[in-house]
Amino acid sequence: MDIVSPLLPSDVAWMRLALHQADLAARAGEVPVGAVVVSANGVCLAVGRNCPVAAHDPTAHAEIQALRRACAHERNYRLPGATLFVTLEPCMMCLGAMLQARLARVVYSAADPKTGACGSVLTLANQLHLNHQTAVTGGVLADLSSTMLQRFFQERRASRRAERDRRRQGTQPMESTGSAGGSGDA
Ligand SMILES: [Zn+2]
Predict the structure, then answer these.
(1) Is the pTM of this model over 0.70?
(2) Which residues are catalytic?
């Protein structure tokens, strides 16, 4: 079953809001992923951003955060007709939660070749043997999301390299002082 959904005029604006959440996640040291849940009549119900490290919670993905807040706002564990916008292709956990919430549609930005469950690794949104299917639109502002993710990982690699170098340098002076002192005495 192919339920790839066409781009709607409002998709880009909602994705920009999700990208803002992703930027806030990056500033907090988390992988930059942001999400927004929009009701069937076009009202923003909740936003969420990735925070598994700070929350000590492997389920604290942006989509789960946004879904929990949207459901609390609606006082309903289901969100029929709603759309979730997210800056990275959802993983299987998040897509499972969206199916449980009976979302009508998911719109994502960058594809995730490692854990994407909307076609990159798995295709879970349109399985007819499951009791619900969700329409999918991918690639909305994908360049912006990819750039943000790449920059985050580049900066994280650089800071880890710098930290390793600092630690190495921190141990060297003691060794070199010892040997320099020894040779000086000799
Ligand atoms: Zn996820």
Answers:
(1) yes
(2) 63
